[in-house]
Amino acid sequence: MNKIIESVHMSKQVGPRLKTDRERYVPNNILLMLAGAGLLWMGWSGFNGGAPYAANLVSSIAILNTNISAATSLLVWTTLDVFYFGKPSVIGAVQGMITGLACITPGAGVVQSWAAIVYGMLSGSIPWYSMMILHKKSTLLQKVDDTLAVFYTHAVAGLLGGLLTGLFAEPDLCKMILPVTNTKGAFYGGGGSQFAKQLVAALFIIGWNIVSTTIILLVIRILIRLRMPEEQLMIGDDAVHGEEAYALWGDGEKYDATQHGWNNPAHVEMLAQPGGARGVTINL
Fold this sequence. Notes:
Layout (H helix, E strand, L loop, with lengths): L1 H13 L4 H5 L6 H20 L7 H29 L4 H15 L8 H11 L2 H12 L1 H4 L7 H19 L2 H7 L15 H31 L6 H6 L1 H5 L15 H4 L4 H8 L12
Helix pairs in contact: 1-9, 1-11, 3-4, 3-5, 4-5, 4-6, 5-6, 5-9, 6-9, 7-9, 9-11
């Protein structure tokens, strides 16, 4: 959660991309995204299950809860996409998976599996609402150029998971892994003490990261600019590094939006034809 707060605060200070870059930016490769999502899900089971540093009951429960929460959240997010947008989304499914993973992490080894379903249901709905509905209504959130929506999939989901752990932490499981005695969630007779601890810890992390990141940015600003000039932003990587991120055009040829962009005349003409192909071959 701390890294997400840092990155969001830094994005706010640096400022958003150019308006033209934010109006339409499609995913680069959904197939590679799915491959990465699969690796992420598998790896997440590893570090949640590896938290006890042993192959024991707690690690088994942590892995089981991780998968239950991720799967439930994926289904809930996809269902909300269908109800709200009229169709499911592969990107939305991956985002739901990530929120489920982030949410269950604080309590993966200390909650029962039925509680992991609750984690998944809430992590698939609350971050979805904050991203799809609240973001469009909040002027503050729109000032942060969060291209990957990590604030919603990690910070919101992570904070939610931490608070839920203050409610669902099971005493017997806590005894098996936590050094602090008599740790229990509010639903197990712990009152609100553990929930309050989780909330205070989250607020401390948020405050600490805002202060420390601000200091770091002030030091960097003394040495170099935090934001490139508008002219360089229009050009992109070639203006800063002298090289293109993707060599998709002719050898030595520079990107030209009028020729290579999605709205170039050849592409527009092709799309206007009945039954025309989605892509277009351009003679370089």
